[in-house]
Structure formats: structure tokens, C-alpha cells
Write a structure and sequence with these properties.
494 residues, mainly alpha, three-stranded mixed β-sheet, globular
């Protein structure tokens, strides 16, 4: 990084400084003003577009804050009701106005190219895929998901309850698809995201299986992660105190990024004692500094999860407008997995000696490979689940995953409910991240510079993932997969 990282905050100029989002009737006049404003020249368009971005950022930040509070205080019904009101009463109406405003903006196509960095195709895609029928239905599904997960976050969820949750979601998603003219939710989801992965599933599966085969010896080793070099008391504080040194070793600007998150009180980490692992990212489009939440069952598991989360946060800081409600995008997941792997080259201060540090690196690579395997299985399960919804859920699970293993499969089932079709994104991102790590070992400064240049590049439509600068150096192909396979095999022997 040639310059220090700076969050992309949006200054309030259109909305009053003390404006708070309470009821729709207070927001509607601002949307009407934007929709009806006269635009005569490029300068007035720029002002109009800036005001629109501020409006959209304000409502999305409030949305993420209310959802975050619901997760932090899952037993407080008033807090969840406040989120539900915003999701069900405000967001669908706001999305309809945004659709009209974006449609109007297409009248000024040359100005758009100049004002927003050439993302005209992104706006055209958003306008084309919007349907008034689906805005409320999508929000209702989100509220159902988050309500179930929040209210059960501190409880032991039974197998039957979790499967009922997924069945109900499938039914509602199938209804949503049919309401908007699709035969099933798999087709609807693919069209809505315009298929963010620029290679076929079959090709992606073949590449993944080659990497898994190369790491077969590594995956057969079930040794646990070594204990961290931490005292028994104040584990979380000690862990967080060691993070800046690691980040600064990669690039001082990363340490600054982490410091900004801490100073803004946007970091909540519990390094041990949680009943189950939880990693959540809440983008903050208005202030530009995301909120990171991590609950881990033990410190050794918290270490890689924390750097993965920081990688998500780094992407969200550059692209705060990106929603994470259905899981991270391929680009965000690439950022998380890459930083997790790259950071392991600088984990020396987390372990007692070099041998344990190297053991931790191998175990982390094994975990990444296991996640690739799981992502591939998940995608096959979901594709069958939504294209043939009448089949028995338990039978499909047994056919795809094998016999039910509650500790391992319950989180997986809940993830399928919350983040539909995340498996393919995770495969594409994971293969790209492994190549990024392999290149980092050969030329750290150059690899990280390319990683950061892509990360900070403007967003592109999901359908043009192959054109996104974040993947320009790391997109998997036959040549990079060959290098990664050799790297994985050699890493086990090192």
C-alpha cells in the first residue's frame, strides 16, 4: 500500500445531521424530492447522484445496525421488532423508490460513466432484475431467517427444528420464484445474481477435486491446532494485542485498518467459551467502518477465523454498499480467505516455537481444503433441493452428505438456510485464495500489492466477476490450478 487506508465515509449533506430513521413517513419526502428534482446539467446530476448515494447509505447502515443489535441482544423482542419494522415496512418502499431513481438515472448515461467510475452496467443490471412483487417477499424471508437464528443463538437447536426451518424457507423461496415467473428458486437466484462465477460448475468441481487429491495426505492428518502462546486469563485481550504486529508485518496500512476498527468500537471478539462459532460482518455504508463480530469455542479456532473476518472487513471497507445478508460475495470471500492464508506467514508471535507455528499452518491448509470439499457438497445438495423440492429432505441429506452428524452438520444446515447457493462462490474464492497465497510465498510485496489493487477497484456487476480487478491476477484456470496442486503437495512434505 502506498498510502494509508482511509474509510470511505459519506458526509451528510442532503439529510439533516441529526436525522434518525424512525417511520417511513419521515423518509418518503426525501425520496420524492430526489425523484422529482429537475436536472439540467452535469453538475446538477452529480449533486443529485451524491444525494441519492447518501440516502441509500443511511438507510442501509440503519438496517445493519438494527440487525446487529438483534444479534447482540437476542432475547429483547423490542429490538427485533425495530429491525422487523425497518425490514418489512421501510425497506420494500425504499427499494421501489430506488428502482425509480436508478431507472431515471439511465437517462443520463454519459454523465453516469463520468460520475461513478464507469459502473453503468451495474445500474442497468439492478434496474433489469428488480420486481415490485419480490421486494416485500424477500424482506419477509430475511426476517424469518434472522428471527429464527437470533432467537435460537443461545439455545441448542434440535435436528427436527432445524430441518423444519429449512423446509419452511424452501417453500417460501419457491413461492417467491413462482411469483416472479421462475419455475424454481435455483433459477430465480441464478438470474437475480446473473451467475457471478464465469466458469461452469463442472469445471470448478474438477479443479476442486484435483486440489483435494493433491492434499489427500494432509487431509488424512487429524491433529488439532496447537495451543496459542497465551496466559489462561484475559485470552481475548492477549489475542487481539498480538494481531497488529502480524498485520503490520504484511503491510503497515493493514495495522492501521485494524486500529480504526478498534477505535470506532466496531470489533466484538470472544475467543473462547462460546457454544458454537459465529463470525458476522456488518458493513456500514455511511461511516465506512464495518463492524466485526467473532465468537469462538477456543482460542486456537479463533485465530484463523479472526483473520478471515478481518479480510471480510477489509473488503467491506472498500465496498461498504455490498450486502452480506446472504453471505459474502465471491470477492469478499476471496479477501477473507486470502488474508487468513497470507497472515499465517506471520503467526510466529502466536505460538511457542517455529515447529508449532508450521504445524498450525498445515492444519489451517487442511481446514481450507475441508471447506472446499464441504462447499462442493453443499452446492450439489442445494441444486437438488430447489429443483426437486418434493423429495424427502432427510433422504436427500443422506444421499449427499452421508449420515447425520449433529455437531458437524447442524451449522451446515443453518448456513444453507441463511446463505443460499454460497458453495460455488466459496469454491471460486477458495481456489483463487490458494493461488494468491502461493504467489505471496514467492513474491510477498508484489502479490500483496496486486491483491490490494484489485480489492480497492470499483465494484462491477456480479455477471462480470471475470472482469473484476480483484480476480484479474487470481482467477483459477488450468495453469494456476496446476501450480496450486503442486504447492499443496509440497507444503505437506515441507
Amino acid at each position: 500500500m502506498s498510502t494509508l487506508f482511509a474509510p470511505r465515509a459519506i458526509e451528510k449533506e442532503f439529510l439533516p445531521q441529526e436525522f434518525r430513521i424512525t417511520v417511513w413517513s419521515r423518509l418518503k419526502p426525501y425520496y420524492n424530492e430526489l425523484l422529482n428534482r429537475r436536472i439540467k446539467e452535469i453538475r446538477s446530476f452529480d449533486r443529485w447522484w451524491t444525494d441519492f448515494k447518501e440516502m441509500r447509505a443511511a438507510i442501509r447502515e440503519e438496517y445493519n445496525i438494527r440487525l446487529l443489535r438483534a444479534w447482540q441482544q437476542p432475547t429483547d423482542e423490542r429490538i427485533f421488532e425495530a429491525f422487523s419494522y425497518l425490514a418489512l415496512e421501510v425497506m420494500p418502499r425504499a427499494q421501489q423508490f430506488e428502482h425509480l431513481i436508478l431507472s431515471r438515472s439511465l437517462e443520463f448515461a454519459p454523465a453516469i460513466r463520468k460520475s461513478i467510475g464507469g459502473s453503468l452496467s451495474l445500474i442497468q443490471e439492478q434496474v433489469a432484475r428488480f420486481g415490485k412483487k419480490n421486494a416485500l417477499l424477500e424482506q419477509e424471508i430475511i426476517v424469518q431467517i434472522q428471527g429464527f437464528l437470533c432467537r435460537n443463538s443461545a439455545k441448542k437447536i434440535s435436528e427436527d427444528k432445524a430441518q423444519d426451518f429449512l423446509r419452511q424457507l424452501c417453500e417460501r423461496r419457491q413461492h417467491l420464484a413462482r411469483q416472479t415467473g421462475y419455475t424454481d428458486y435455483a433459477s430465480y437466484h441464478s438470474a437475480r445474481l446473473s451467475s457471478p462465477i464465469p466458469v461452469s460448475k463442472a469445471q470448478l468441481y474438477r479443479w476442486t477435486e484435483r486440489i483435494l487429491s493433491a492434499g489427500e495426505a494432509l487431509r488424512s492428518n487429524d491433529a488439532p491446532m496447537p495451543n496459542l502462546s497465551l496466559r489462561s486469563r484475559g485470552v481475548t485481550e492477549q489475542l487481539l494485542a498480538k494481531v497488529p504486529k502480524c498485520l503490520n508485518s504484511i503491510d503497515p496500512a493493514l495495522g492501521r485498518h485494524f486500529q480504526l476498527i478498534q477505535e470506532a468500537r466496531r470489533l466484538h471478539v470472544k475467543a473462547r467459551g462460546s457454544k458454537s462459532s459465529l463470525a458476522r460482518l456488518s458493513p456500514m455504508p455511511l461511516s465506512g467502518i464495518p463492524h466485526l463480530t467473532l465468537h469462538a469455542t477456543q482460542p486456537a479456532k479463533a485465530l484463523p477465523q479472526l483473520f478471515h473476518l478481518i479480510g471480510w472487513g477489509l473488503y467491506a471497507a472498500f465496498h461498504p454498499e455490498q450486502s452480506m445478508l446472504e453471505g459474502p460475495s465471491a470477492a469478499a470471500e476471496f479477501s477473507g480467505q486470502s488474508l487468513r492464508l497470507i497472515s499465517s506467514e506471520h503467526w510466529d508471535n502466536f505460538f511457542i516455537d517455529k515447529e508449532q507455528w508450521q504445524t498450525a499452518q498445515k492444519i489451517q491448509l487442511r481446514q481450507i481444503l475441508d471447506q472446499l470439499q464441504l462447499a462442493m457438497v453443499r452446492d450439489r445438495f442445494e441444486q437438488s433441493l430447489y429443483t426437486n423440492p418434493a423429495q424427502d429432505l432427510k433422504a436427500l441429506w443422506t444421499t449427499t452428505y452421508g449420515e447425520w452428524n449433529a455437531p458437524h452438520h447442524l451449522p451446515e444446515l443453518l448456513k444453507i438456510g441463511e446463505c443460499p447457493f454460497s458453495g460455488i462462490r466459496q469454491l471460486y474464492a477458495g481456489l483463487s485464495a490458494l493461488y494468491c497465497w502461493q504467489q505471496y510465498q514467492e513474491a510477498p510485496k508484489m502479490a500483496f500489492s496486486h491483491f490490494l489493487q484489485g480489492l480497492s477497484a470499483p465494484s462491477v456487476p456480479a455477471s462480470n466477476t471475470s472482469k473484476s480487478l480483484i480476480f484479474s491476477k487470481w482467477a483459477p484456470n488450468d495453469n494456476t490450478i496446476k501450480k496450486v496442486a503442486t504447492f499443496v503437495t509440497d507444503f505437506e512434505a515441507a
